[in-house]
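step: validate -> pass
step: tokenize input -> pass
step: predict -> running
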Amino acid sequence: MALALGLDVSHAGSSATVVVRGELDVASAPELVKLLRLLAESGSTDVVLDMGHLGFVDSHGLDAVAAADVELAHRGGRVLVRNPSRLTRHLLAAMDLLHVLAEPALTAG
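step: predict -> pass
step: emit ->
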């Protein structure tokens, strides 16, 4: 049984942290896109995606991260990914998205 996507948001000034739980895939990615767009439109310039509780992610999920990265960059902000799994780091590398990692030193291996 697939785990539902859970998105818990906290704010600190113009920054937002989103704890992503469950599965981020073709079915759930639009929910993340909608939330990230809402955060950008409401003035959040920096968005941290904490993926430490993410059970599964595919390229559709990371496409949502890439789209948010572009949108926030146009607004002078950025997306940062924290606590990605090893597989998520490999997918980020394959999609040329390593620049979104909050801890770039962890990209090796």
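step: describe -> The chain has one domain: 6-107.
step: cleanup -> pass
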